[in-house]
Specification:
five-stranded parallel sheet, 127 residues, 5 strands, 15% strand, globular, alpha/beta
Length: 127
């Protein structure tokens, strides 16, 4: 399993894209982007992001709320196991996609931290 962002993944060659099963984990998907296989809004920060964008909460509060949200999801089913099962079924490596470039604060970085803490596994950014 890896993570990346829409514009970076879109620049991969078709041959490189074939290795992956891209899943959008953002609240929305750019109009120009069509390379995803699934859109998992259930893992997106849809209730937190608007408040962050409006400046109602800072990044620290955003991160705290998103991690609490992930903990509630984890109580239902292991997030890592859920995506690992897709990899097995599709016989491809899952890449979780959203908007933000690597150097920007983003929920996918929080998600990878969460998975590392719960499963002792490191999920790398697509290089």
């Amino acid at each position: 399993m890896k993570t990346s962002y829409f514009s970076k993944f879109s620049r991969l060659s078709d041959e490189e894209k074939e290795k992956y099963y891209p899943i959008a984990i953002s609240t929305t998907i750019p109009n120009w982007y069509s390379d995803y296989k699934e859109h998992h809004t259930f893992i997106s920060p849809k209730d937190i992001l608007p408040r962050y964008r409006k400046g109602e909460i800072d990044w620290e509060q955003y991160a705290t709320e998103y991690m609490a949200f992930l903990n509630r999801l984890e109580e239902i089913q292991s997030i890592y196991e859920f995506y690992s099962k897709i990899e097995i079924e599709e016989e491809k490596e899952v890449v979780l996609l959203c908007y933000e470039a690597n150097d920007k604060p983003c929920h996918r970085h929080l998600l990878t931290d969460f998975i590392r803490e719960k499963n002792n596994i490191i999920i790398k950014e697509l290089s």
